[in-house]
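pasting input
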Amino acid sequence: MKAKNRDLYIDGLGVNFSGFQAVNNFSMVVKHGEMRVLLGANGAGKTTLMDMICGKTQSTAGRIFLGDKEITNKPPHLIARMGIGRKFQIPSVFKELSVLQNLSVAAMQESTVLANLGSMKRRVDHERMKEVMSMTNLENKAHELAENLSHGETPWLELAMLIIRKPQVILLDEPTAGMTADETLKTSRIMNNLKGQHTIIAVEHDMAFVREIADKITVMHQGEFLAEGHISDIENNQAVKDAYLGSGGIH
Amino acid sequence: MMKLTYSHLKVVVYVVFIAIILSLPLFLDEFWLNRTAKYLIYGMLGVAISLSWGYAGILNLGQGLFFGAGAYMLGMSLKLASPTSLEQGGQTPIPDFMMWNAEPNAVVDLCCINHVSFLWMPFQSQSFGIFMAIALPVLIAWLIGTIIFRKGIAGVFISIITLAMVLLARLLVVDAQSFTGGFNGLTDLAWFKINGYEFDPYTVSTYYLVAISLVIVLLITRVLINSRAGLILQAIRDDQNRAKYLGFDAASYQTFFFCVSAAISGFAGMLYVITAEFASPTFMDLSFSIAIVIWAAVGGRASILGACIGAISISMLGASVSENELFVESWQAILGLFFVLVVLYMPKGLAGIAHGICRKLTVNRGEG
Ligand SMILES: Nc1ncnc2c1ncn2[C@@H]1O[C@H](COP(=O)(O)OP(=O)(O)OP(=O)(O)O)[C@@H](O)[C@H]1O
Ligand SMILES: [Mg+2]
């Protein structure tokens, strides 16, 4: 595949936690604008893989490329600046700041202290803020403190903070965890809205949701690559069926 | 009629506060002006703690280290400029305590009266003393910051490390008697001088030197926390990791604002020496650093002005109360109890309550 067309390229990635091989010789190519879903049983290494991509965990083997720039084991804030946005399994937002302030922080163009000593005014793109807030169902919450948001709204705010930065690649770890059916539905709408504009990799257990959003699925098993393909291929894949037998299959 | 908004009210509160402190010379005599100047200096420490604790989430239990460093640095210059030091009969002025501790046949010169005295030589220039009063605290803060924040150490560990640092510094200062004046500190100091004008501590001009300094510190701090960097700092306080994965180098923000807080404290220490005419190792007593934290907690650590007013009023109350026989011993205990109550029942301090009232009074919610 041409380098031009791929946003993320992982080559033989591995990490060893003092003897325990959490991810082993894992490779994957994600095309520009693709919505990729990562599947795998508990402990398969999905979160660890995302941690390595965004610089939270140092890999011990292999390389990661964003476009044609290598990002392997760079400091997290630099990887973020280069164009990777990460949403965590446990939603994290700036609790004592308002929704608008959360988004303002996320939208900052400059990253260093000295470049940011100027005032907030003028630098804020209100149109873009409004657009992102309505995309994530937060249009009426602009002045609400993040700590007062509901269970479902908190991950939306985190998602909004990623979207507003327009990163090249967005990593979402279980975006619907703990959501009600209604919130899950709204989340899948947000995701489908983003389709094509961003390259997205999502870890997700809810198969109904996966069917709703996924272009292509990659399955991990015990830290290794197991299978890749469209949803029907994966559901009929014998290796996947075998791997999931112990944990009751994919639902 | 113009609608009164929350941010208008905030400006009004600042203006009233500044007007009060600037008009006090109309009502107070020189003795009280001198005392009040000291309380205003404590208010400046409240600002410093609010910035590091309230806005950066760094609970510094060793603020006295920066205050003490600032005080000693200018104190050294003022000590050398005092008549006693000038009249020791050497080529250079010599602090009296160095004479007392000198070997019988030592050369009476700063260069070599003892083997560390040469470090005092540049302090013959008062400007150097002023420079160091800011530079040394900032340097110490930068070193602590770079080591601690780079390692991602957070929360209670920072408090323990800063606490250990201030205790260590106190020990060193008391121990290095022939260099620092030891337990007695620096006394018998000259007056602070600018362009030949001498600041007698018991005059209106010294009061204004302090009061205007406080106003400037308040305003600069406000500008800083209202800047984009100030907002990012608060974001880092709330969730350091989230900020990191949005592309901000959390450690550099924490270090920067920790240094600003240290600079303010050093500046306060410097003004204290000018006003009180001594520098003492007691500035680095644990109880003093803890007291600063309590002032800010009661006033409201999340509010620059709240912490400032908290520091001024509680230290004022403490000073008058401990003149009463009954409270000499018990004041510390009362203060401690007060602190516990505040932490339990009003975590945002008095400023938190004031904010609540202001919000109810005003029609629309500002951003503040
Ligand atoms: N820092 C670490 N040190 C040691 N072992 C770790 C570390 N981080 C993860 N692991 C282990 O690596 C394995 C993969 O964990 P990971 O969290 O990536 O799984 P996951 O696929 O995200 O699972 P889940 O679906 O439960 O979120 C687990 O066995 C976990 O215990
Ligand atoms: Mg996981």
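fyi Chain B touches chain A through 27 residues (CB under 8 Å).
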